[in-house]
Amino acid sequence: MGATAFSLLPKMSFAKHFSEAKQNEELIRLAVIGKGRMGTTNLKASLTTKMSQLTAVCDVYEKRLQETIDEYGKEILISRNYRDIIHSDKVDAVIIATPDHLHQKIALEAMKAGKHIYCEKPIIYRIAEGKELIRAQKENKVIFQTGSQGVSAWGTELARLITESGLIGPVNLIEGEFTIAPNDLKSFVTPKDANESTIAWDRFLENAPKRPFDAQRFFQWRGWQDYSSGLAGDLFVHVIASVHYIMQAQGPERVYSTGGLNYYRDGTRDLPEVMLSYLDYPNMGNKGAFTLALRANLVDGISKKWSSTDFTMIGTKGTMRVEWNTITLKTRTRIPNELFKGLMSLGVGEPKKTVVQNQHIYEFSKVKGLGSAHVNHHKNFLQAIKNGEKLRADIDFGIKSATAALLCNESYLQKSAIKWNSKQI
Ligand SMILES: NC(=O)c1ccc[n+]([C@@H]2O[C@H](COP(=O)([O-])OP(=O)(O)OC[C@H]3O[C@@H](n4cnc5c(N)ncnc54)[C@H](O)[C@@H]3O)[C@@H](O)[C@H]2O)c1
Question: Mind spelling out the 3-state secondary structure of 161-223?
Fold first, then answer.
């Protein structure tokens, strides 16, 4: 552990990086396409920056449009057809938060209409969709931010600095897991107002296979491969994106998956309920060649780790638990004070230090006033539009992290390891 390790770190200050950006008077006119759970969360995060204003909303479910009018007023342009929104001259940028199968199609058309894009992860639903998306972004010169807000989290940034400093040594394994007990998944009850007149079923399907109206598929689209990229696209991709950011990884060389669908055999899903994937990454910049081990289990009798995006990085000299607002670093030997001084000069607060069974444990907590990961991610998007600020999750980043997740599905389906070269994109 070299005493000068932190002098090698990039000259950036946490406080400066996450500070309130100087705001321009002019607000970016924002539309939301898909105003469900994440569309609403994204909208609130964007408005919190005070750099945008809502001008339009598209959703295929009447209730969401009514909620929009009730909350934001009748002057908001609303439609069930996303083309009305992307061709509107009242819109500069769109947030795409529909089910996965629609992301690439809507993003492509919106970019061709000259709109800037904030697209939910995974930005592609099939690996082959990536090339056309990149071409459209280059041709239309619009800003494209991937909705992997974890890369704008304080903890992710600190994990990157600590990894780069060599404090945990070369990384060899990274582990993340998501589990939920089956009882926590409430059985589906069709909302009273949901029918073919209140839901534009054909617009929900778009390119997906045609089938009669089915409220369960509409509301619980995550369980169905026609609309969802499964546990990998929904959950693994969060950890994959943060790991790509921390390790500056371009993508795995090899992916193996297994899992199954044995409990939910009641016709409510066709995607696996248990999935384990191992992604092998090459050594980049001497940070270590490592395997990313991910697992998700929807039918874990008692466990409760759903929605968490935390993971553990294991290196030859120590380990690091990475959460958005906390970092727990454990090392074999005491870290010299001058190294901590280096970290603190970057705006990181002093860690709580303990020694347990010869392990030196350092707990770092986010300094107050730095803003949430989600708001910072939207701020980064809006600053990129206004001032050309560098994006934290641009289209290339989004496609590489989505592809790594989609490779997990490919391996599961093919029941074999898949080799990959990120230059293939
Ligand atoms: N970044 C994150 O932390 C995070 C968290 C949750 C979900 N997501 C992503 O956000 C997306 C949406 O997930 P959600 O949980 O909000 O789902 P949701 O079902 O709550 O919302 C989806 C919305 O899209 C609407 N919709 C469906 N087809 C449409 C169409 N053709 N045009 C316009 N609207 C349409 C639905 O009516 C619904 O309101 C997914 O891709 C998911 O992976 C990201």
Answer: HHHHHCCCCCEEEEEEEEEECHHHCCCCCCCCCCCCCCECHHHHHCCCCCCCCCHHHHHCHHH
Partnered with residue 279 across adjacent β-strands are 255, 292
Q: Tell me, rounded to whole angstroms, the distance of Cα 74 from its chain centroid.
A: 32
Per DSSP, the three-state class of 331 is strand
The alpha carbon of 183 and the centre of ligand 1 are apart by a number of angstroms equal to 23
Mean pLDDT calculated for residue range 155-165: 94
pLDDT for the residue numbered 342: 75
Distances (CA, A) of 91 to 24, 123, 345, 376, 401: 18, 21, 42, 22, 28
Place of tokens 């409510």: 268
Q: How far apart are the first and last CA of the chain?
A: 37
Mean pLDDT of the chain: 92
Structure tokens at 117: 């894009």
pTM: 0.94
The CA distance from 194 to 303, in Å, is 33
In order of 6, 12, 323, the CA distances from 9 in angstroms are 5, 8, 21
Nearest CA to ligand 1 atom 18: 36
What pLDDT was estimated at residue 348?
Answer: 83
Q: Which residues line ligand 1 (CB under 6 A)?
A: 33-39, 58-61, 64, 82, 97-100, 102, 120-121, 147, 149, 203-204, 206, 234
For residue 35, report the distance from its CA to the centre of ligand 1, in Å.
7
Question: Ligand 1 centroid vs 253 CA: distance in angstroms?
Answer: 30
Structure tokens at 204: 């929900």
Omega before 182 within 30 of 0, i.e. cis = no
